[in-house]
Design brief:
Strands 3-2-1-4 form a four-stranded antiparallel β-sheet. The N and C termini lie far apart (63 Å). It has helices spanning 2-18, 74-79, and strands at 28-37, 59-64, 69-72, 85-87. By secondary structure, the protein is of the alpha+beta class. The protein contains two helices and four strands; from the N terminus they run αβββαβ. The protein has one domain.
Length: 115
Amino acid sequence: MAGFLRAVLVLGVVWGCYARSVGAPLPEETVTGRLAWLDANEAPREYVHLATTPLIGPYYILVSLSGHYCVVPDVVYVSVQDSQRWACDWRPLRPARLRVGPPAAADTRSPRIPG
């Protein structure tokens, strides 16, 4: 069951990267790095795109010289070399979400540190 699910996910990612090539050639960019997460839910929001993010399992991306990213299957992830030009559906990073802590309760003061 897990093997079948993995195959379906890989095919979905490959189709997402290459389906666009039917109408127009994919742009090539120079690969400068790669990032991976064991669970797609752990990936930062900047690198997540609903159409190409797997529901479960690992998440692999290539990063280009221009700062774009491309979601790829594990086979591509390990075979593409740094400084190699690669045709893919390169996407710009999404804006980072501001991380704001919980609001302070009313009338709370920060503790004084004796100096």
